[in-house]
Amino acid sequence: xxxxxxxxxxxxxxxxxxxxxxxxxxxxxxxxxxxxxxxxxxxxxxxxxxxxxxxxxxxxxxxxxxxxxxxxxxxxxxxxxxxxxxxxxxxxxxxxxxxxxxxxxxxxxxxxxxxxxxxxxxxxxxxxxxxxxxxxxxxxxxxxxxxxxxxxxxxxxxxxxxxxxxxxxxxxxxxxxxxxxxxxxxxxxxxxxxxxxxxxxxxxx
Length: 205
Prior knowledge:
Elements (H helix, E strand, L loop, with lengths): L4 H32 L5 H38 L13 H21 L4 H34 L5 E5 L10 H8 L20 E5 L1
Antiparallel strand pairs: 1-2
Helix pairs in contact: 1-2, 1-4, 2-3, 2-4, 3-4
């Protein structure tokens, strides 16, 4: 939990900014899927995956930039120190393309095998890929915060702050991870996130 009211407001504003990035990339990738993917054309999956990776990279960079600005502002208001820099997190385009292609085709095959209509299966598979793109993009910001807390002696670690979109509240997985109040300080611990997760990492001092 933030030490100051100003810090808490910054975390909330950061979560809102990440939410906006995530919702936008979801919509963009789903629109791409609908426009480009054709189950009767084997090559359309790869074309889609390449285009989706491109727009996901842009969102990944936006997420990183917003997280870096948040880290600097948060550190200043919480402990009155200037953060010299933030950690670099690389984008992996080949991995993203493979993931988006596999997620879409695997889901399509599974649903058709379960008796779905082709039209319904294609739409549902597109929704799954859009969620994967959201998760991949927001990993940019989450990993900037997590890695910076490990790389800088300003911080003691990071904690999970629950955030959700919609009326159902956070899922049981996210609530369980957040409710223990843990501050993670071991580099081996990464931020666990499912598709359409909007929880954020908050630095601890």
